[in-house]
Amino acid sequence: MLVMKGIVKQFPGVRALDGVDLDVRAGEVHCLLGQNGAGKSTLIKVLAGVHQPDEGTIVFNGEQVRPSSPIDAIKLGFATIYQELDLVDGLSVAENIFLGHEHATFGFVNRAAARKAAREVLERLGHAEIRPSAEVGRLSPAAKQVVSMARALSHDARLIIMDEPSAALAHDEVANLFRIIRELTAQGVAVVYISHRLEEIREIGDRVTVLKDGRTVAVGLSARDTPTTQIVSLMTGRNVEYVFPPRGGRTLGEEVLRVEGLSAPGVFRDVSFSVRAGEIVGLAGLVGSGRSEILEAVYGARHAAGRVLLDGRPVRRGVVGTVRHGMGLAPEERKAQALILDQSVTANITLGTLPEFARFGWIDRKRERSEAKRLSEMLDIRPPDPERAIRTLSGGNQQKAVLARWLLGGRKLLLLDEPTRGVDVGARAELYAVIHDLAERGIGVLLVSSEVPEVLGLADRVLVLREGAVIHEGDAAELDEHAVLDMIMNGRAA
Ligand SMILES: Nc1ncnc2c1ncn2[C@@H]1O[C@H](COP(=O)(O)OP(=O)(O)OP(=O)(O)O)[C@@H](O)[C@H]1O
Ligand SMILES: [Mg+2]
Fold this sequence. Notes:
alpha/beta, Rossmann fold, 6-stranded mixed sheet, 17 helices, binds adenosine-5'-triphosphate, binds magnesium ion
Protein backbone atom coordinates (compact mmCIF):
# COMPACT_ATOMS: atom_id res chain seq x y z
CA MET A 1 0.00 0.00 0.00
CA LEU A 2 2.75 2.40 0.98
CA VAL A 3 6.40 2.41 -0.01
CA MET A 4 8.75 5.10 1.29
CA LYS A 5 12.27 5.01 -0.10
CA GLY A 6 15.43 6.91 0.77
CA ILE A 7 13.68 9.61 2.80
CA VAL A 8 16.04 12.34 3.97
CA LYS A 9 15.16 15.24 6.27
CA GLN A 10 17.73 17.72 7.42
CA PHE A 11 17.05 20.16 10.28
CA PRO A 12 19.57 22.84 11.18
CA GLY A 13 22.43 20.86 12.68
CA VAL A 14 20.60 17.50 12.71
CA ARG A 15 20.04 15.02 9.94
CA ALA A 16 16.86 13.59 11.46
CA LEU A 17 16.25 11.18 8.57
CA ASP A 18 19.17 9.88 6.62
CA GLY A 19 17.70 7.63 3.95
CA VAL A 20 14.80 5.82 5.58
CA ASP A 21 12.85 3.00 3.89
CA LEU A 22 9.43 1.82 4.99
CA ASP A 23 6.84 -0.38 3.34
CA VAL A 24 3.37 -0.94 4.73
CA ARG A 25 0.76 -3.47 3.59
CA ALA A 26 -3.00 -2.98 3.56
CA GLY A 27 -4.63 -4.42 6.67
CA GLU A 28 -1.46 -4.70 8.75
CA VAL A 29 -0.26 -3.06 11.92
CA HIS A 30 3.24 -1.94 11.12
CA CYS A 31 5.27 -0.97 14.16
CA LEU A 32 7.94 1.66 13.99
CA LEU A 33 10.54 1.28 16.71
CA GLY A 34 13.62 3.20 17.69
CA GLN A 35 15.29 5.02 20.55
CA ASN A 36 14.33 8.54 21.54
CA GLY A 37 15.44 10.81 18.73
CA ALA A 38 15.78 8.01 16.16
CA GLY A 39 13.51 9.87 13.71
CA LYS A 40 10.14 8.13 14.12
CA SER A 41 8.02 11.24 14.60
CA THR A 42 9.88 13.07 11.85
CA LEU A 43 9.18 10.23 9.43
CA ILE A 44 5.48 10.21 10.12
CA LYS A 45 5.36 14.00 9.88
CA VAL A 46 6.72 13.62 6.36
CA LEU A 47 3.77 11.35 5.61
CA ALA A 48 1.38 13.73 7.34
CA GLY A 49 2.49 16.66 5.21
CA VAL A 50 4.00 18.54 8.16
CA HIS A 51 7.60 18.24 6.92
CA GLN A 52 8.75 18.20 3.29
CA PRO A 53 11.50 15.63 2.74
CA ASP A 54 14.76 16.79 1.17
CA GLU A 55 15.10 13.55 -0.74
CA GLY A 56 13.23 10.30 -1.31
CA THR A 57 10.00 9.00 -2.80
CA ILE A 58 6.60 7.99 -1.43
CA VAL A 59 4.39 5.62 -3.42
CA PHE A 60 0.84 5.08 -2.22
CA ASN A 61 -1.38 2.49 -3.93
CA GLY A 62 0.94 2.46 -6.92
CA GLU A 63 1.13 6.20 -7.39
CA GLN A 64 3.87 8.56 -6.41
CA VAL A 65 2.61 11.12 -3.88
CA ARG A 66 4.10 14.08 -2.04
CA PRO A 67 1.92 15.31 0.84
CA SER A 68 2.50 19.05 0.77
CA SER A 69 0.33 20.00 3.75
CA PRO A 70 -1.69 18.28 6.50
CA ILE A 71 -4.91 18.85 4.53
CA ASP A 72 -3.27 17.34 1.47
CA ALA A 73 -2.27 14.26 3.48
CA ILE A 74 -5.84 13.85 4.75
CA LYS A 75 -7.12 14.05 1.17
CA LEU A 76 -4.72 11.27 0.23
CA GLY A 77 -6.28 9.14 2.95
CA PHE A 78 -3.66 9.49 5.70
CA ALA A 79 -4.79 10.30 9.23
CA THR A 80 -2.33 11.00 12.03
CA ILE A 81 -2.55 10.87 15.79
CA TYR A 82 0.40 12.89 17.04
CA GLN A 83 2.61 12.21 20.01
CA GLU A 84 2.21 15.76 21.23
CA LEU A 85 -1.51 16.27 21.01
CA ASP A 86 -2.40 19.02 18.59
CA LEU A 87 -5.92 19.76 19.74
CA VAL A 88 -7.23 23.29 20.13
CA ASP A 89 -7.96 23.76 23.83
CA GLY A 90 -10.50 26.55 23.41
CA LEU A 91 -12.73 24.61 21.02
CA SER A 92 -15.29 21.94 21.78
CA VAL A 93 -14.76 18.22 21.34
CA ALA A 94 -16.96 18.17 18.22
CA GLU A 95 -15.19 21.17 16.72
CA ASN A 96 -11.83 19.54 17.25
CA ILE A 97 -12.96 16.29 15.69
CA PHE A 98 -14.24 18.02 12.59
CA LEU A 99 -11.57 20.66 12.30
CA GLY A 100 -10.86 20.93 8.57
CA HIS A 101 -13.95 18.91 7.62
CA GLU A 102 -16.82 20.26 5.61
CA HIS A 103 -19.10 20.00 8.70
CA ALA A 104 -17.00 22.67 10.32
CA THR A 105 -17.68 25.36 7.75
CA PHE A 106 -21.44 24.99 7.36
CA GLY A 107 -22.33 26.96 10.45
CA PHE A 108 -25.43 26.69 12.52
CA VAL A 109 -27.42 23.77 11.10
CA ASN A 110 -24.43 21.57 10.69
CA ARG A 111 -23.21 22.19 14.19
CA ALA A 112 -25.95 19.81 15.29
CA ALA A 113 -24.90 17.36 12.60
CA ALA A 114 -21.30 17.62 13.69
CA ARG A 115 -22.23 16.97 17.32
CA LYS A 116 -24.25 13.95 16.31
CA ALA A 117 -21.44 12.61 14.16
CA ALA A 118 -18.96 13.30 16.95
CA ARG A 119 -21.14 11.39 19.39
CA GLU A 120 -21.19 8.41 17.03
CA VAL A 121 -17.42 8.28 16.67
CA LEU A 122 -16.93 8.64 20.42
CA GLU A 123 -19.38 5.83 21.04
CA ARG A 124 -17.56 3.65 18.56
CA LEU A 125 -14.43 4.34 20.56
CA GLY A 126 -16.21 3.25 23.72
CA HIS A 127 -16.20 6.76 25.18
CA ALA A 128 -19.80 7.88 25.14
CA GLU A 129 -19.10 9.80 28.36
CA ILE A 130 -17.08 12.47 26.54
CA ARG A 131 -19.58 15.16 25.58
CA PRO A 132 -19.20 16.62 22.06
CA SER A 133 -19.92 20.08 23.47
CA ALA A 134 -17.27 19.90 26.21
CA GLU A 135 -14.28 22.23 25.95
CA VAL A 136 -11.18 20.23 25.08
CA GLY A 137 -8.91 22.25 27.37
CA ARG A 138 -10.80 20.89 30.36
CA LEU A 139 -10.35 17.23 29.50
CA SER A 140 -7.80 14.86 31.02
CA PRO A 141 -4.81 13.79 28.88
CA ALA A 142 -6.42 10.40 28.30
CA ALA A 143 -9.69 11.94 27.13
CA LYS A 144 -7.77 14.24 24.80
CA GLN A 145 -6.12 11.20 23.31
CA VAL A 146 -9.56 9.75 22.61
CA VAL A 147 -10.66 12.97 20.89
CA SER A 148 -7.53 12.90 18.76
CA MET A 149 -8.33 9.33 17.79
CA ALA A 150 -11.95 10.23 17.04
CA ARG A 151 -10.68 12.89 14.67
CA ALA A 152 -8.52 10.37 12.82
CA LEU A 153 -11.43 7.94 12.52
CA SER A 154 -13.81 10.62 11.26
CA HIS A 155 -11.82 10.94 8.04
CA ASP A 156 -12.30 7.40 6.68
CA ALA A 157 -8.56 7.13 6.29
CA ARG A 158 -6.81 4.27 4.47
CA LEU A 159 -3.67 4.67 6.50
CA ILE A 160 -3.72 5.66 10.15
CA ILE A 161 -0.50 6.69 11.81
CA MET A 162 -0.36 6.55 15.60
CA ASP A 163 2.58 8.12 17.39
CA GLU A 164 2.65 6.64 20.91
CA PRO A 165 -1.14 6.52 21.19
CA SER A 166 -1.01 4.41 24.33
CA ALA A 167 1.30 6.71 26.27
CA ALA A 168 -1.59 8.55 27.92
CA LEU A 169 -3.79 5.49 28.34
CA ALA A 170 -4.35 3.07 31.18
CA HIS A 171 -4.57 -0.67 30.82
CA ASP A 172 -8.28 -1.01 30.00
CA GLU A 173 -8.10 1.87 27.56
CA VAL A 174 -5.23 0.26 25.72
CA ALA A 175 -7.37 -2.87 25.34
CA ASN A 176 -10.07 -0.68 23.85
CA LEU A 177 -7.58 0.97 21.49
CA PHE A 178 -6.45 -2.46 20.30
CA ARG A 179 -10.04 -3.52 19.67
CA ILE A 180 -10.49 -0.47 17.42
CA ILE A 181 -7.21 -1.12 15.63
CA ARG A 182 -8.31 -4.69 14.90
CA GLU A 183 -11.64 -3.46 13.53
CA LEU A 184 -9.83 -1.03 11.25
CA THR A 185 -7.29 -3.52 9.93
CA ALA A 186 -10.06 -6.06 9.28
CA GLN A 187 -11.48 -3.46 6.88
CA GLY A 188 -8.13 -3.20 5.09
CA VAL A 189 -6.94 -0.03 6.79
CA ALA A 190 -3.19 0.01 7.42
CA VAL A 191 -1.91 1.22 10.78
CA VAL A 192 1.59 2.54 11.48
CA TYR A 193 2.08 2.19 15.21
CA ILE A 194 4.81 3.79 17.29
CA SER A 195 5.34 2.75 20.90
CA HIS A 196 8.11 2.26 23.42
CA ARG A 197 6.20 -0.54 25.13
CA LEU A 198 7.53 -3.68 23.54
CA GLU A 199 4.82 -5.91 25.01
CA GLU A 200 2.29 -3.94 22.97
CA ILE A 201 4.20 -4.53 19.78
CA ARG A 202 3.88 -8.27 20.34
CA GLU A 203 0.20 -8.04 21.06
CA ILE A 204 -0.96 -5.77 18.25
CA GLY A 205 1.85 -5.68 15.69
CA ASP A 206 2.27 -7.69 12.49
CA ARG A 207 5.62 -6.39 11.30
CA VAL A 208 8.33 -4.18 12.71
CA THR A 209 10.69 -1.64 11.18
CA VAL A 210 13.51 -0.37 13.38
CA LEU A 211 15.09 3.08 13.00
CA LYS A 212 18.41 4.10 14.46
CA ASP A 213 19.98 7.54 14.08
CA GLY A 214 17.74 8.38 11.14
CA ARG A 215 18.36 5.14 9.25
CA THR A 216 16.38 1.96 8.77
CA VAL A 217 18.30 -0.84 10.46
CA ALA A 218 15.70 -3.61 10.05
CA VAL A 219 12.71 -3.86 7.72
CA GLY A 220 9.56 -5.87 8.15
CA LEU A 221 10.57 -8.25 10.94
CA SER A 222 7.85 -10.41 12.43
CA ALA A 223 6.40 -8.62 15.45
CA ARG A 224 5.61 -11.88 17.21
CA ASP A 225 8.59 -14.06 16.41
CA THR A 226 11.51 -11.65 16.71
CA PRO A 227 13.08 -12.00 20.16
CA THR A 228 12.90 -8.88 22.32
CA THR A 229 16.66 -8.98 22.86
CA GLN A 230 17.18 -8.77 19.10
CA ILE A 231 14.80 -5.81 18.74
CA VAL A 232 16.42 -4.00 21.65
CA SER A 233 19.93 -4.53 20.36
CA LEU A 234 18.86 -3.31 16.88
CA MET A 235 17.43 -0.18 18.49
CA THR A 236 20.27 0.58 20.85
CA GLY A 237 23.24 -1.09 19.21
CA ARG A 238 23.97 -2.82 22.50
CA ASN A 239 22.47 -5.36 24.85
CA VAL A 240 20.25 -3.74 27.43
CA GLU A 241 19.00 -5.60 30.43
CA TYR A 242 15.36 -4.64 30.52
CA VAL A 243 15.10 -5.25 34.24
CA PHE A 244 14.54 -3.43 37.45
CA PRO A 245 17.31 -2.92 39.97
CA PRO A 246 17.22 -5.53 42.73
CA ARG A 247 14.89 -4.81 45.57
CA GLY A 248 16.03 -4.45 49.14
CA GLY A 249 19.40 -3.47 50.49
CA ARG A 250 18.12 -0.02 51.30
CA THR A 251 17.65 1.08 54.85
CA LEU A 252 14.56 3.10 55.41
CA GLY A 253 14.85 6.20 57.50
CA GLU A 254 12.41 8.51 59.22
CA GLU A 255 9.03 9.29 57.79
CA VAL A 256 9.36 12.16 55.29
CA LEU A 257 5.78 12.39 54.14
CA ARG A 258 2.60 11.76 56.02
CA VAL A 259 -0.80 12.16 54.39
CA GLU A 260 -3.87 12.04 56.63
CA GLY A 261 -7.47 11.84 55.51
CA LEU A 262 -6.92 13.63 52.22
CA SER A 263 -10.22 14.22 50.44
CA ALA A 264 -11.41 16.20 47.44
CA PRO A 265 -15.09 15.79 46.57
CA GLY A 266 -15.62 13.57 43.54
CA VAL A 267 -11.89 13.01 43.04
CA PHE A 268 -10.50 11.04 45.99
CA ARG A 269 -11.57 10.39 49.56
CA ASP A 270 -9.98 9.69 52.89
CA VAL A 271 -6.55 8.85 51.55
CA SER A 272 -3.90 8.23 54.21
CA PHE A 273 -0.37 6.92 53.84
CA SER A 274 3.22 7.74 54.56
CA VAL A 275 6.56 7.61 52.78
CA ARG A 276 9.83 7.09 54.65
CA ALA A 277 13.26 8.34 53.67
CA GLY A 278 14.72 5.92 51.15
CA GLU A 279 11.37 4.36 50.38
CA ILE A 280 9.64 4.12 47.01
CA VAL A 281 5.85 4.04 47.28
CA GLY A 282 3.83 3.33 44.15
CA LEU A 283 0.25 4.35 43.37
CA ALA A 284 -1.48 1.95 41.01
CA GLY A 285 -4.88 2.63 39.48
CA LEU A 286 -6.68 3.47 36.28
CA VAL A 287 -6.65 6.88 34.68
CA GLY A 288 -9.37 8.72 36.58
CA SER A 289 -8.82 6.78 39.80
CA GLY A 290 -7.39 9.91 41.40
CA ARG A 291 -3.69 9.03 41.26
CA SER A 292 -2.39 12.19 39.61
CA GLU A 293 -4.74 14.34 41.64
CA ILE A 294 -3.41 12.87 44.89
CA LEU A 295 0.11 13.77 43.78
CA GLU A 296 -1.00 17.30 43.02
CA ALA A 297 -2.69 17.62 46.40
CA VAL A 298 0.43 16.38 48.19
CA TYR A 299 2.42 18.93 46.23
CA GLY A 300 0.07 21.66 47.32
CA ALA A 301 -1.11 22.48 43.81
CA ARG A 302 -4.64 21.23 44.39
CA HIS A 303 -7.11 21.96 47.14
CA ALA A 304 -8.01 19.08 49.40
CA ALA A 305 -9.25 18.55 52.92
CA GLY A 306 -7.00 16.64 55.31
CA ARG A 307 -3.35 17.04 56.23
CA VAL A 308 -0.06 16.74 54.40
CA LEU A 309 3.04 16.74 56.58
CA LEU A 310 6.56 16.92 55.25
CA ASP A 311 9.16 16.09 57.90
CA GLY A 312 6.40 16.48 60.42
CA ARG A 313 5.55 20.03 59.35
CA PRO A 314 2.31 20.89 57.56
CA VAL A 315 2.71 21.76 53.90
CA ARG A 316 1.20 25.06 52.91
CA ARG A 317 -0.47 25.31 49.56
CA GLY A 318 1.09 27.06 46.63
CA VAL A 319 3.79 25.65 44.46
CA VAL A 320 6.54 28.04 45.48
CA GLY A 321 6.06 27.07 49.08
CA THR A 322 6.43 23.40 48.35
CA VAL A 323 9.55 23.84 46.27
CA ARG A 324 11.04 25.37 49.39
CA HIS A 325 9.70 22.44 51.38
CA GLY A 326 11.92 20.16 49.36
CA MET A 327 9.44 18.43 47.09
CA GLY A 328 9.68 17.96 43.37
CA LEU A 329 6.83 17.04 41.05
CA ALA A 330 7.42 15.64 37.57
CA PRO A 331 3.99 16.11 36.04
CA GLU A 332 2.12 13.97 33.60
CA GLU A 333 1.43 16.37 30.78
CA ARG A 334 4.91 17.65 30.28
CA LYS A 335 4.39 19.99 27.36
CA ALA A 336 1.62 21.99 28.95
CA GLN A 337 2.75 21.87 32.55
CA ALA A 338 6.45 21.58 32.61
CA LEU A 339 8.40 22.92 29.68
CA ILE A 340 9.27 26.34 28.34
CA LEU A 341 9.58 25.27 24.76
CA ASP A 342 11.63 28.13 23.38
CA GLN A 343 14.26 27.94 26.09
CA SER A 344 17.35 25.79 26.17
CA VAL A 345 17.66 22.34 27.66
CA THR A 346 19.78 23.76 30.48
CA ALA A 347 17.25 26.46 31.31
CA ASN A 348 14.47 23.87 31.38
CA ILE A 349 16.42 21.57 33.66
CA THR A 350 17.34 24.26 36.16
CA LEU A 351 13.90 25.91 36.12
CA GLY A 352 12.31 25.94 39.54
CA THR A 353 15.49 24.90 41.28
CA LEU A 354 17.14 28.26 40.79
CA PRO A 355 17.31 29.14 44.50
CA GLU A 356 19.85 26.36 44.92
CA PHE A 357 22.15 28.03 42.47
CA ALA A 358 21.81 31.44 44.00
CA ARG A 359 24.85 32.45 46.02
CA PHE A 360 24.81 35.80 47.76
CA GLY A 361 22.05 37.01 45.50
CA TRP A 362 23.30 36.02 42.11
CA ILE A 363 22.91 32.80 40.21
CA ASP A 364 25.93 30.57 39.83
CA ARG A 365 25.52 30.00 36.09
CA LYS A 366 28.62 27.93 35.82
CA ARG A 367 27.50 25.43 38.41
CA GLU A 368 23.97 25.49 36.99
CA ARG A 369 25.34 24.57 33.59
CA SER A 370 27.67 21.88 34.85
CA GLU A 371 24.93 20.22 36.92
CA ALA A 372 22.54 20.32 33.96
CA LYS A 373 25.25 18.82 31.80
CA ARG A 374 25.94 16.03 34.27
CA LEU A 375 22.25 15.10 34.41
CA SER A 376 21.74 15.22 30.65
CA GLU A 377 24.67 12.89 30.28
CA MET A 378 23.39 10.59 32.97
CA LEU A 379 19.97 10.37 31.28
CA ASP A 380 21.54 10.40 27.82
CA ILE A 381 19.55 13.37 26.52
CA ARG A 382 20.07 13.74 22.78
CA PRO A 383 21.41 15.55 20.93
CA PRO A 384 23.99 16.26 23.66
CA ASP A 385 23.76 20.03 23.26
CA PRO A 386 22.50 21.76 26.43
CA GLU A 387 22.06 25.10 24.66
CA ARG A 388 19.61 23.73 22.07
CA ALA A 389 15.96 24.87 22.32
CA ILE A 390 13.96 22.12 23.96
CA ARG A 391 11.27 22.45 21.27
CA THR A 392 13.61 20.74 18.79
CA LEU A 393 14.15 17.66 20.95
CA SER A 394 12.23 14.45 20.37
CA GLY A 395 9.33 13.69 22.73
CA GLY A 396 11.23 11.21 24.85
CA ASN A 397 14.20 13.51 25.24
CA GLN A 398 11.91 16.30 26.45
CA GLN A 399 10.58 13.92 29.07
CA LYS A 400 14.09 13.19 30.24
CA ALA A 401 14.73 16.91 30.68
CA VAL A 402 11.66 17.24 32.92
CA LEU A 403 12.96 14.40 35.04
CA ALA A 404 16.46 15.80 35.15
CA ARG A 405 15.03 18.94 36.70
CA TRP A 406 13.65 17.03 39.64
CA LEU A 407 16.75 14.97 40.10
CA LEU A 408 18.69 18.15 40.57
CA GLY A 409 19.37 19.55 43.98
CA GLY A 410 18.67 18.36 47.47
CA ARG A 411 15.11 17.20 47.62
CA LYS A 412 13.66 15.05 50.35
CA LEU A 413 10.66 13.81 48.43
CA LEU A 414 10.20 13.22 44.76
CA LEU A 415 6.74 12.92 43.21
CA LEU A 416 6.91 11.14 39.87
CA ASP A 417 3.88 10.99 37.59
CA GLU A 418 4.40 8.58 34.70
CA PRO A 419 8.17 9.09 34.69
CA THR A 420 8.92 6.73 31.81
CA ARG A 421 6.15 7.74 29.48
CA GLY A 422 7.65 7.97 26.01
CA VAL A 423 11.13 7.03 27.23
CA ASP A 424 12.87 4.31 25.22
CA VAL A 425 13.89 0.96 26.69
CA GLY A 426 17.56 1.80 27.00
CA ALA A 427 16.99 5.04 28.86
CA ARG A 428 14.27 3.42 30.94
CA ALA A 429 16.68 0.99 32.52
CA GLU A 430 18.95 3.94 33.33
CA LEU A 431 16.08 5.93 34.75
CA TYR A 432 15.10 3.04 37.02
CA ALA A 433 18.66 2.89 38.27
CA VAL A 434 18.65 6.65 38.90
CA ILE A 435 15.41 6.45 40.90
CA HIS A 436 16.84 3.65 42.99
CA ASP A 437 20.03 5.55 43.49
CA LEU A 438 18.09 8.55 44.78
CA ALA A 439 16.17 6.35 47.20
CA GLU A 440 19.43 4.86 48.36
CA ARG A 441 20.60 8.35 49.17
CA GLY A 442 17.60 8.76 51.45
CA ILE A 443 15.07 10.50 49.24
CA GLY A 444 11.45 9.39 49.55
CA VAL A 445 9.73 8.67 46.24
CA LEU A 446 6.03 8.65 45.45
CA LEU A 447 5.45 7.15 42.03
CA VAL A 448 2.42 6.97 39.74
CA SER A 449 2.52 4.74 36.68
CA SER A 450 -0.04 3.18 34.36
CA GLU A 451 2.31 0.29 33.86
CA VAL A 452 1.68 -2.14 36.68
CA PRO A 453 4.97 -4.03 36.15
CA GLU A 454 6.78 -0.73 36.57
CA VAL A 455 5.04 0.01 39.88
CA LEU A 456 5.70 -3.51 41.12
CA GLY A 457 9.28 -3.53 39.87
CA LEU A 458 10.27 -0.18 41.33
CA ALA A 459 8.22 0.34 44.46
CA ASP A 460 8.74 -1.13 47.90
CA ARG A 461 5.14 -0.58 48.87
CA VAL A 462 2.06 -0.22 46.68
CA LEU A 463 -1.25 1.54 47.22
CA VAL A 464 -4.01 0.39 44.90
CA LEU A 465 -6.57 3.04 44.05
CA ARG A 466 -10.00 2.61 42.69
CA GLU A 467 -12.48 5.39 42.15
CA GLY A 468 -10.63 7.72 44.45
CA ALA A 469 -10.21 5.36 47.38
CA VAL A 470 -7.28 3.22 48.53
CA ILE A 471 -8.52 -0.36 48.34
CA HIS A 472 -5.25 -2.08 49.13
CA GLU A 473 -1.90 -1.29 50.66
CA GLY A 474 0.94 -3.77 50.81
CA ASP A 475 4.47 -4.88 49.99
CA ALA A 476 5.22 -4.86 46.28
CA ALA A 477 7.06 -8.14 46.68
CA GLU A 478 3.87 -9.85 47.75
CA LEU A 479 1.81 -8.72 44.75
CA ASP A 480 1.83 -9.80 41.13
CA GLU A 481 0.59 -8.01 38.05
CA HIS A 482 -2.51 -10.13 37.75
CA ALA A 483 -3.62 -9.49 41.32
CA VAL A 484 -3.13 -5.74 40.97
CA LEU A 485 -5.02 -5.58 37.67
CA ASP A 486 -7.84 -7.55 39.21
CA MET A 487 -8.05 -5.04 42.04
CA ILE A 488 -7.91 -1.91 39.90
CA MET A 489 -10.34 -3.19 37.29
CA ASN A 490 -12.78 -5.22 39.36
CA GLY A 491 -12.32 -3.73 42.77
CA ARG A 492 -11.48 -7.10 44.26
CA ALA A 493 -9.30 -6.88 47.30
CA ALA A 494 -6.27 -9.15 47.52
N1 LIG B 1 11.74 20.92 14.41
C1 LIG B 1 12.95 20.41 14.62
N2 LIG B 1 14.06 21.17 14.54
C2 LIG B 1 15.29 20.65 14.75
N3 LIG B 1 15.52 19.36 15.08
C3 LIG B 1 14.45 18.55 15.18
C4 LIG B 1 13.11 19.03 14.97
N4 LIG B 1 12.26 18.00 15.14
C5 LIG B 1 13.02 16.93 15.47
N5 LIG B 1 14.35 17.25 15.48
C6 LIG B 1 15.47 16.33 15.76
O1 LIG B 1 15.36 15.23 14.88
C7 LIG B 1 15.74 14.02 15.51
C8 LIG B 1 14.62 13.01 15.41
O2 LIG B 1 13.52 13.42 16.25
P1 LIG B 1 12.12 12.65 16.30
O3 LIG B 1 11.19 13.53 17.02
O4 LIG B 1 11.76 12.20 14.94
O5 LIG B 1 12.52 11.39 17.19
P2 LIG B 1 11.58 10.17 17.68
O6 LIG B 1 12.16 8.92 17.10
O7 LIG B 1 10.17 10.45 17.42
O8 LIG B 1 11.90 10.14 19.25
P3 LIG B 1 10.92 9.91 20.55
O9 LIG B 1 10.87 8.44 20.79
O10 LIG B 1 11.69 10.56 21.65
O11 LIG B 1 9.62 10.55 20.28
C9 LIG B 1 16.11 14.40 16.93
O12 LIG B 1 17.52 14.55 16.98
C10 LIG B 1 15.42 15.73 17.15
O13 LIG B 1 16.13 16.49 18.10
MG1 LIG C 1 8.56 10.90 18.64
